[in-house]
Amino acid sequence: MIMKTLVSSLAISLIMFAASLCAARPAPPDSLTVEQAVRLTVQNHPLIQQAACGIAAVDARADASRSPRYPDISLVGLYTRLDPVAEMEIAHMGSFRFYPENNYDFHVALRQTLYDFGRTGTGIALAESARRTASDYIEVVKSGLAYQAVVAFDAILILRRSIEVIGEQMGALQGHPEVARTKIEA
């Protein structure tokens, strides 16, 4: 009987010693608030930067969809040298050339679409819709990341509180061997 109580006391004191080594120290004051954590997450996460680049790409496609409304101006210049030049000599009138030796040809062309049965307008509307979708997507990504940051922050707070509760339980358990010893002696 005495051996059993000695082993129990020894086991309890060993548990208390291990608990005192593992006992949680008081948590230092938080250096980061939930708002700061969310702000830092939204500012620095690669998904946000990727979505912003997606908006830039959609803007470029929207600008390209407006291009059929602009006039198309082209300038073409050609030079041709023909040699030998065919000549004909007419008496009392002199020499006569059939074509000039150096030929220059310049063209200026302007093309403008007058009516395309709504094709350009539909393309522009589609590009604007894609722009709104990309803007909505970046907001969805931001809110999803903010939610994940809040969940992680709450999990850290819950774990920190759990550590405090376990520390309180360990403190209560440290008093139990004394109670047990008194009961054994009684």
What does this structure look like?
The chain has helices at residues 2-22, 34-44, 46-65, 119-185; strands spanning 72-81, 87-90, 94-97, 102-111. The chain is of the alpha+beta class. The protein has a two-stranded antiparallel ribbon with strand order 1-4. Strands 2-3 form a two-stranded antiparallel sheet. The model has no long low-confidence stretch (mean pLDDT 84).
Using only CA atoms, what is the Rg?
44 Å
Quickly count the helices: 4
Please summarize the sheet with the most strands.
Answer: 2 strands, antiparallel
The dominant shape is rod-shaped
| Percentage of residues in DSSP E strands | 15-25%
Tell me roughly what share of residues is in helical segments.
55-70%
Protein structure class: alpha+beta
- The mean pLDDT is 84
Order of helical and strand elements: HHHEEEEH
Oligomer kind:
single chain
- Counting DSSP E segments of at least 2 residues, the number of strands comes to 4
Low-confidence stretches: none
Cα(first) to Cα(last) distance is 14 Å
| Cross-sheet strand order for the largest sheet | 1-4
Offer a few descriptive terms:
4 helices; alpha+beta; rod-shaped; 186 residues; 4 strands; two-stranded antiparallel sheet
